[in-house]
Design brief:
The structure holds three protein chains of three kinds.
Chain A (H helix, E strand, L loop, with lengths): L2 H29 L3 H5 L2 H9 L1 H29 L3 H31 L2
Chain B lengths: L4 E6 L7 H4 L11 H27 L6 H11 L2 H29 L20 H25 L3
Helix pairs in contact in B: 2-4, 4-5
Chain C lengths: L27 E8 L10 E8 L6 H11 L19 E4 L2 E4 L5 H4 L3 E5 L6 E3 L2 E2 L2 H9 L8 H4 L10 H8 L9 H5 L1 H5 L5 H12 L7 H8 L13 H5 L6 H18 L2
Parallel strand pairs in C: 1-5
Antiparallel strand pairs in C: 1-2, 3-4, 3-5, 6-7
Helix pairs in contact in C: 3-8, 8-11
The chains are: A mainly alpha, B mainly alpha, C alpha+beta.
C-alpha cells in the first residue's frame, strides 16, 4: 500500500474521529438524562447500544480511532529502527492489534445491539 | 599562547540511544512552540491509544449482564480513575485541536505560498494563523481540564 | 525572437530588525568549543574555553580561525566563503544550529559563546560532522531536471519560463545545503532513514519547476514510509534556515502535490 493511500485514509478517519468523539464525549458527560454518573449505569449504557443511531456512532468511532491510533503507533515504531525485518515486525504487530481491537469492539456492539 | 586557554572541562559525548532520541530534540534549541506541540501530540496520542485499548475491553463487559457491569464500574469509580479520565479528556482536546492545525497546514493555504525570499526572511509556515490555532488548542485543553474537574468531581 | 522582460514582483515591505545596541565592547570574548577526536584512542570529549581578542564585527567563524591560528592548529571545523553562500560552516552556536560566518558574537549577548558540532550528524572531529547521509538523502530525490526525451523530443534550445513559473519554485532553489534544517528537525533525530527537510524541499523545487518531467521518478522516493509524510510540522527547519528557504512550506506543498497526484490516479 502506498504511503499516500494510507495517509488519505488517515485524513478521512481523522475527520470522522473529530465528529464522533466530540459527540461521544458530549453524550457521556452532559447530553444524557442523568449526567455523568447516570451515564455509567447499566441501563443507560445498554440503551446506547440498542438505538441504531448511537450504535452506528460507536461503530464509526471505533473504526476511526483504531485506524488513527494504530497508524500513529506504526509511524512512531518505524522511526525507531530500520530494516525489512523491523518493518515486517511493525506491520504484523499493528495489524494484530487492529484485529484484536476491532474484533472485540465490533463484537460488543453487534451482540449488545442484538440483545444481550 | 598558553594563557588563551581558560579552562578544559569534560563534556558529554554524542550519546545515542533509541529511547533518548525520542525526546531529546524537544530540549534543544530552536525552542519553537510547534516543536514542543509535537512532543505533546505524540505523548497524548500514545496515551490515548493505550486508553482506547483498555476502554474497548472495559466496555465489552456490557454483554455480560448487569452484575458484571456494576461490579466493574464499582471498581473503576475511584479518584485515581477520575484522574485518568481527566488526562484522557485534556489530552484528547489538545491532540484534536492541534491535529486540526496540522491538517490545515498540510492541506490548505494556511501554510503559505512560494514567495521571493528577500531579507529579512518571512517564515510563512510559522505564521500568525497557525500560531493562533496552537494557542486555541492550549486554551481549550485548559478549559477541558476545568470542565472535567467540575463534571467528574461534581463541584 | 524578442523575449519580454517582465517586471519583477514588488519587493516585500522590509521589516527593520531591532539590533541590540552594542554594549561597551570588552577586550576579549570567551569561546567554549567542543573538542573530540573519535579516531584517536583515549581521546575524551571536552569543552575547552579560549579567550579570544574581541574586534568589531567579530563572527564566530573569525573567533574559531583566531584560535586555530594562535592557540591550537588542531581545531577542526569547516568553512569556505565566510559570507553565507557556501553552506560549509554550519555549527551549534549556543545550542542553536547557525552559520558561523553569519553569527556576530556581539549580537549573541552571552558572556561565553558555546560552539559545538551540529546535532543529528556523526562527529568526524571537533566541530566537523559527517554529511554522508545528508548528501545521500539529497541524491535520493534526484535533484536535477528530468526530461522525458522520448515523449517531448531532445532539448535543442533554452526551455523558457515565465516569472510566475519561476516564482513557483525559486524560494526553494535558494538552498545552500548547509544542513542546519536537518540538524534542527526532530524527525531526523528520531529516524535515520527520513529524507529530511532539505531533501524534501529540493524534491518540491524540481516537482514545481515547469521544465521538469520527472514526477514518476521522484514519487518513488518521496511517497514512501520515510518520505514526505513523516514530516510532523515541528517547523524547526524553517526557524533555523539562514536563506529563507522555508523547507517546512516546501514539504507541505510536496505533500499536497503527492496527494493530488494520488487522487488523480498517477
Amino acid at each position: 500500500m502506498r504511503e499516500s493511500t494510507l495517509q488519505l485514509v488517515n485524513y478521512v478517519m481523522v475527520l470522522a474521529l473529530l465528529v464522533t468523539l466530540a459527540l461521544h464525549l458530549a453524550m457521556q458527560a452532559f447530553l444524557g438524562v442523568s449526567g455523568y454518573e447516570g451515564a455509567l449505569s447499566y441501563s443507560t449504557a445498554l440503551a446506547r447500544y440498542r438505538e441504531p443511531l448511537s450504535a452506528s456512532l460507536l461503530a464509526i468511532l471505533l473504526v476511526a480511532a483504531t485506524y488513527h491510533g494504530l497508524f500513529g503507533l506504526r509511524n512512531i515504531l518505524l522511526e525507531m529502527r530500520s530494516g525489512p525485518r523491523w518493518d515486517r515486525f511493525v506491520t504484523g504487530t499493528v495489524l494484530g492489534l487492529a484485529v484484536v481491537m476491532l474484533g472485540w469492539g465490533l463484537r460488543t456492539i453487534v451482540v449488545a445491539f442484538g440483545g444481550a | 599562547m598558553p594563557d588563551s586557554i581558560v579552562s578544559v572541562e569534560a563534556a558529554r559525548g554524542r550519546v545515542e540511544g533509541v529511547a533518548k532520541r525520542q525526546f531529546r530534540w524537544a530540549f534543544q534549541p530552536p525552542m519553537n512552540l510547534e516543536k514542543l506541540a509535537l512532543l505533546v501530540q505524540r505523548v497524548s496520542g500514545l496515551g490515548l491509544l493505550v486508553y482506547l485499548f483498555f476502554h474497548i475491553f472495559v466496555t465489552g463487559t456490557i454483554t455480560s449482564g448487569p452484575a458484571a457491569w456494576d461490579g466493574l464500574m464499582g471498581m473503576l469509580l475511584n479518584p485515581l480513575a477520575h484522574v485518568g479520565e481527566l488526562l484522557v479528556v485534556v489530552g484528547a482536546t489538545f491532540h484534536g485541536i492541534n491535529g486540526v492545525r496540522v491538517l490545515l497546514l498540510e492541506l490548505t493555504a494556511l501554510v503559505g505560498h512560494p514567495i521571493r525570499p528577500d531579507y529579512p526572511y518571512r517564515v510563512q509556515s510559522l505564521g500568525k494563523g497557525e500560531r493562533s490555532i496552537l494557542y486555541t488548542a492550549m486554551i481549550m485543553a485548559g478549559l477541558a481540564l476545568i470542565a472535567g474537574i467540575v463534571i467528574l468531581w461534581g463541584l | 525572437m524578442v523575449v519580454e522582460i517582465q517586471e519583477p514582483a514588488p519587493r516585500q515591505k522590509v521589516h527593520h530588525v531591532a539590533v541590540p545596541r552594542q554594549a561597551r565592547r570588552g577586550m576579549t570574548v570567551l569561546l567554549k568549543v567542543y573538542r573530540h577526536n573519535p579516531s584517536a584512542a583515549g581521546d575524551k570529549p571536552r569543552m575547552v574555553t579560549y579567550r579570544v581578542p574581541n574586534t568589531k564585527g567579530l563572527t564566530v567563524l573569525d573567533a574559531l580561525l583566531w584560535v586555530k591560528e594562535h592557540v591550537d592548529p588542531g581545531l577542526a571545523f569547516r568553512y569556505s566563503c565566510r559570507m553565507g553562500i557556501c553552506g560549509s560552516c554550519g555549527m551549534l552556536i549556543n545550542g542553536k544550529p547557525a552559520l558561523g560566518c553569519e553569527t556576530q558574537i556581539a549580537e549573541l549577548g552571552t558572556d561565553v559563546v558555546e560552539v559545538g558540532p551540529l546535532t543529528n550528524y556523526p562527529v568526524i572531529r571537533d566541530v566537523a560532522t559527517d554529511f554522508t547521509d545528508f548528501f545521500s538523502h539529497h541524491r535520493t530525490v534526484r535533484p536535477y531536471l528530468i526530461r522525458q526525451e522520448e515523449a517531448t523530443g531532445p532539448v535543442r534550445r533554452e526551455l523558457l519560463q515565465t516569472e510566475e513559473e519561476k516564482l513557483a519554485y525559486y524560494q526553494f532553489a535558494m538552498c545552500i545545503m548547509c544542513g542546519l534544517c536537518d540538524a534542527a528537525c526532530p524527525v531526523v533525530a528520531m529516524d535515520r532513514e527520513y529524507l529530511g527537510p532539505q531533501a524534501l524541499a529540493q524534491a518540491y523545487r524540481f516537482l514545481a519547476d515547469s521544465r521538469d518531467q520527472g514526477w514518476e521518478e521522484r514519487m518513488e522516493a518521496v511517497d514512501a514510509p520515510h518520505g514526505c509524510f513523516r514530516c510532523e510540522l515541528a517547523g524547526s527547519c524553517s526557524a533555523v534556515c539562514p536563506k529563507g528557504v522555508d523547507p517546512d512550506l516546501g514539504t507541505q506543498l510536496l505533500k499536497r502535490a503527492v496527494l493530488r497526484g494520488r487522487l488523480k490516479g498517477t
